Amino acid sequence: GAGVSQTPSNKVTEKGKYVELRCDPISGHTALYWYRQSLGQGPEFLIYFQGTGAADDSGLPNDRFFAVRPEGSVSTLKIQRTERGDSAVYLCASTVTSGSGAEQFFGPGTRLTVL
Amino acid sequence: GNSVTQMEGPVTLSEEAFLTINCTYTATGYPSLFWYVQYPGEGLQLLLKATKADDKGSNKGFEATYRKETTSFHLEKGSVQVSDSAVYFCALISGQAGTALIFGKGTTLSVSS
What we know:
The complex is a heterodimer. Chain A is mainly beta.
């Protein structure tokens, strides 16, 4: 598989539960982004990794959201104490370089539903 | 702050009609501009881009010109096909404000035969 993959494709959870969403970027891509897309909206930036470190986490809405990328490849977005407002499609994107003209390649997303 | 505004949809056209989807932006510095497309059941994919003023991005018959004087990046296609039915997102990367994409809300295009 040459593209960005995300698992699970769908996740249904109850309010207050903890969830983890996984992203496998394209091999060799050092930059990885997480976005959140609510219904009828464009994707909104959450966090950006360059290698293993979070270079920009200014888009995380609050401290219930956290993401890691321990080996500079796979990344996990973690959401604690989920709320109904967290329901959205969570998108991951990767790129070879983080320059302003670089194409970001998107995964298919994880649709999170919080009941 | 940086933002993108695009025309609201849905846009409904007949096959072979001319398409324009308007996009304007607000950004610090000199952003790079993008159009992404999301076909039904598929992920977001880059359609075209332009990285400096007066550049024209083109792909699959679609075109958009980076107009700094009007802060616009309108998407056009001379003759749409049913297969062009999708959601189109205008986006920018400011550079000065980071490397993440800032998206508009998206415009749904529906083309009928």
